[in-house]
Structures are given as structure tokens and as C-alpha cells.
Amino acid sequence: MGLKNLRGRVAWIFEDEDFDVDQIVGVKNIKIKDAAELARLAMHAEDPDFATSVKPGDLLIGNHNFGYGHPHYPPMIGMRHLGIGGVLAESFSPGYWRGEIAMGFAQVACPGVLSAVSRWDEIEVDWAANEFRNHTTGTTLPIEPLSDGDRLMLEAGGLVGYLHARDKEEATG
Amino acid sequence: MGYTIAEKILARVSEKSAVHAGEEVLAKPDFVIAYDFPGYTDVIFRQMEEDFGIDKVAEPDRYALFIDHMVPATTTQEEELHQLTRDWGAKNKVPVYERKGIGHQVAAELGYATPGAFVVHFDGHISQLGTFGTLAIGVRRHLLEAFVKERIKFKVPETTRIDLTGTLQLGVTARDVFHHIVRVIGPRGCRGHVLELGGDTIDDMSLEGRQSITCLAMFTGAITAIINPDERALTYMKERARIDIDPLFSDPDATYASRHEIDVSTLEPIVVVPPSPADTRDLSEVAGTEVHVGYLGSCASGRVEDLELAADVLEGHKVKDGFQLNVIPTSQEIMEIAAEKGIITRLINAGAFISSSSCDYCFGRMGVMRAGQRAVSTGTLNVRGRMGSPDSEIYIVNAAAVAAAAIEGRITDPRPYLKG
Q1: Neighbours of A79 (CB within 10 A)
Q2: Which ipTM score applies to this complex?
Q3: What are the domain boundaries of chain B?
């Protein structure tokens, strides 16, 4: 079972280094649990039309150490509810990365990506070739390969599926 | 080519003769620790049963649960969550430690920080067990893996080594040292690595000070921090260690991703300016800023020497009228020692409000600020809304600076108060 390529438009570019993802919905909303409400709030302070302008499969772009600080899950619960397919960044904060991969949410470390995209460019992540492609500009960049554990987890759609896959792997030995 | 302490610990728990950074291993944690929190423990207990059909954990002595958040409970839902934890512990024969203090500290007191052990938790501040030569890692939701599997899949991390040199000035603490490290290497200076600390400053530092530093490793981007255990750490753990394993140490020719030497002999008290945990500056840059609340406590700070330093600053002074100084010792054991030493009485006489140990002041569940208020804090974090309104602010400083600000109602250099 291989991972399906990510393909979509650049829905947002987070230009700040060490970006605190809680800002996506705003700290005052961080205890909200309803995914639809979180989706409505996502990036609303920056772009009131964000929720209505993104399409399933669209992707987010981040700078270095994306997810730094004390990341909570609600912002990306909102983003996934909108159909956002994943995040590509120059690099990730390890705690954020681990948390989102466990949710089955694709995260792609791609040095150079920030300067290789503009908002709404059509982009793709080819997991087999470990390559990022910007179909709007023709640019390609290598992505950092996933570890085996992270790849299995994304293939299984998250932590629970991954652990079931490990059960099968161990049973067939 | 030698190995780091982290590589040696992961080799041991993977039953391999040696592992190097980059390898993926199946590691058996010596201890699996969690505090009860909605969305974590309750979900793990449910998923174990519903998704994996696991009724009980196989080796209950490997697990430990702490009730340290939402203590005391203020809603029926919180008390129900605690009861779920107690019931699950009783059914599984897993110890539940309640009202003993902040779990990351109590875990050390109870010997879960056995030198050479591998520990996982969902919370990254468990890194502070590294003070005792324990590799302790916060794995967030992946903790489920350690509840349903004997072994977790884990990529052996690289290690960044930092040697600290020089003697700290009076009024400059381990807390200042940690934030200075972030200032020097940056918030991603150790991204994804183990932060291994050493040097003569660490050698001379108390275990409490080392706990402050290792607790906060995540703000350098590190996945944990560790110190090769010395006589002091081994002596502390001698009677407490829960399992009989040999301590491990980095080889002199171990491979590090990078090495830094940082001189702290001229370091001044620092402040971490909101809302970023990476914005470290000299305290003098913001001296005079009006503040209304002081928080001395947390899993990072709030130990005996922090409390004593604050009492020294407050000696002969009173907390300014209207200023709220909340002092929460990190554990009940620490509170008892501080009481025996007369520190608690001195703090109360100066006007401090003292509470029993709890995590609740650190994350805005107790001692909450309204919009426009500003705190000086030894809590772990200064992001927006952490201690109440998103329009309140948190300036992170050391224990002495919290006390000095409590006297003056503004951020001020604590050192003049310590010169008698």
C-alpha cells in the first residue's frame, strides 16, 4: 500500500518562523471541540473568506520550525474539516509533527518550499519520488523522506490504524 | 566510534548491542507515565478496550498515573475524570499518585527517574527526568502505542551537546541559564535532537537547578534533555530507583550532531518576553514594566531553592498592595521541606498566597488573569492566553525576580535585594 500523492492549491503561506499553530483559530478559541466551528474560525482573523475559498486537497505552507511553542490539536482539526490535505514546511517542531502525524495528517519537510510557492499555486507531493512539484511554475524540490514509522502511520490514516497494521505485521511475522 | 547516553539507553531497551542515531528501533519503555487529562488518558483507556480489546495492561509496574491537573476539582466533570483514572488504576493494578505534587517532580521522588531507564509520557516536560541520566520523552498521542504494545517504534535521535562553563552570579539561577541557552542556539538550535548537558556549571549545580533546565528542553526544539549522572544524581536515586539497572554514560568519543560551549559567568537575570517562549532578553531591558500578578511554581521552578531565594528577596519587605503573589511548591515533599526550613512562614509573612502543589496555576485554570493584566512567572510558558485572557501577558523570569516584582509592582533586577 503506497501513500497517495498530495495535490491541491496553496491555501495559505505562514511566513513566520517558529509559527505557533494556535494562532490559526486564536487562543481564545483553543478549547472549542466542534470541528465545523473550528473550520469556520480557521484563519478568519486574517482572511474572513478563508473557509469558503479553500477546496478539499488544498495545502498549507510553513517556514522553519513550524508548530513551535505548545501546539494544540484544534487548529488542524478545523483545517482537516475544511479538507486541507497537509502541511509543507521548511522544517517542523518535533512535538507538533508527532501530534499531527498521529492524526494521520500529512506533514512534509521540504527545504526551500517557502520561496517556491505563491498563494493558489497548484502543487503536488510525490511520496514515491520524494519530490515536491509546483505545477504552476514548474519548480521541483526534493522532500525529506518519511521515517518508516511515520509513513506507516500516514498510510494507516493515523495512530489507531497504524497499531492495527503493526498487529497484522507481527501476526504474519 | 563511541555512543551517546541516549544511544546506549535505546540500545538496551531495544535489546541490541548498539544503535546509532537515525536507526529505527522497537524500544520497550521501562516506564510509561501519564497524568489524567481529558482527551489523553480517558481516550487511551477507551481506545485500549474498544479498538484493541485490551482489558488490562500486561506489566502494571511499568505504568504510573498522576492526578496533578485539575487538583482540587472545581467541576463534577473533573472529579469524574479523576474517578475514571482511579478506577482504571485499581482494575489494572497500576499506581495512581494523587495530591502528591506535579507528576514530573513526583516521578523523580518516587524513583521513576532510574538512571539508564527509558520513559515515555505524552507531555514533553517529562524531559526533566534526564537530570538523573534517564531518557524521558514526551510522545504526545503516540503514548497509546505504549499502552497497547510492549514496544514502541522509535527513531534513535541525534544528540546536541552543550557544555556550560562558569560560576553563576548571586540572583542568577538555572532558569536564567536555560533561557540563555535558547537565546544562544535559538528556538530550533536543537530541533529533533536530544540535548545533552554538561560542563562545570552543571557539575556545580543542584539537582533542582538541573531539573529546571532539563524540564524546558522543548523550547530549544529538543525532544528531551539528559545529563550523564554524577555522584549527586546517583546518590539521590540510590534508595529511590525502581528497577535494578546500571547507569549509562556517553563515551568520550561519542558522535554529536553539534557541540556548543556557553559561558554563563557574566549572565544576568533574564526575562522571556511574551508571547514567544524564544524571546529571551536581559531583564534590564524591560525593567520598570508594571506587573500585577506573580506566579512562583510549576514543574520547571518552585523547588526548595527557588522558594528560599524568593524568601531571601522578600526578607524585610512586603508584597505590594494589590499585587497577587501566588506561590505553589512543585510537590508536597518540597512543601514539607520548605515548611521545616521556615521558608513557608517567611513567604506568608511577606504577603505571599501559598497553595498546595498543583499544575493548575501554570495553564490558566487557577489564578487567572483578566484582559490587561501582566504577570511575572516561573511557569513553563508565556504564550498568549496561557494564564487567562488572551489579552493578558506573561513575562517569564526567575524566582528571585518574581519576588522582587512582587515588592515593587514592576519588573526589577532582584540582585540588589540579595546583597543584604
Answers
A1: 29
A2: 0.91
A3: 5-262, 271-418
User: Average pLDDT, stretch B134-158?
Assistant: 96
- What's the mean per-residue pLDDT of chain B? 97
Please name the helix (run of DSSP H) or strand (run of DSSP E) that holds residue B209, with its range, or none: helix B207-215
The pLDDT assigned to B42 comes to: 96
Q: How far is CA B362 from the centre of its chain?
A: 12
Strand pairing class (B280-282; B353-354): unpaired
Residue B93 backbone dihedrals phi, psi, to 5 degrees: 60, 30
Q: What is the pLDDT of residues B42-68, one digit of tens each?
A: 999 999 999 999 999 999 999 999 999
pLDDT higher than threshold 70 for residue A173:
no
Point out the least confidently predicted range of A49-53, B80-84, B381-385. B381-385
Rg (alpha carbons) of chain A, rounded to whole number: 16
pLDDT of residue B420: 61
Residues of A with CB under 8 A from a CB of B: 18, 20, 22, 26-28, 30, 64-65, 68-70, 73, 91, 93-95, 98-99, 102-103, 147-149, 152, 159-160, 163-164, 166-167
Over residues A22-36, the pLDDT tens digits come to: 999 988 898 899 999
The CA angle B161-B163-B169, to the nearest 5 degrees, is: 145
Grid cell listed for A160: 489507531
Cα atoms found within 13 Å of the Cα of residue A145, Cβ hemisphere only: 6
**Contact: B138, A95; criterion CB under 8 Å:** yes
Separation in Å, CA B217 to CA B31, B82, B224, B298: 20, 29, 6, 15
Go through chain A and tell me how many residues it has. 173
Which residues lie below 8 Å from residue A60, measured CB to CB, with a gap of 6+?
Answer: A10, A11, A12, A13, A14, A79, A84, A86, A87, A88
Mean pLDDT of all residues in B340-357: 98
Same fold, B5-262 and B271-418: yes
End-to-end Cα distance, chain A = 18
Of B145, B276, B390, the CB nearest to A163: B145
- pLDDT, mean over chain A: 94
Q: How far is CA B360 from CA B70, B244, B378, in A?
A: 6, 34, 13
All structural domains of chain A, each given as residue ranges with its CATH number in brackets, are 6-172 (3.20.19.10)
Taking the CA atoms of residue B55, residue B57, residue B58 and residue B63 in that order, the dihedral angle to the nearest 10 degrees is -170
pLDDT, residue B47, reads 96
- Kindly indicate whether the domain formed by B5-262 is annotated with CATH number 3.30.499.10: yes
CATH number for B271-418 (one of 3.20.20.20, 3.30.499.10, 3.40.50.1110, 3.30.450.20): it is 3.30.499.10
A70 pLDDT more than 90: no
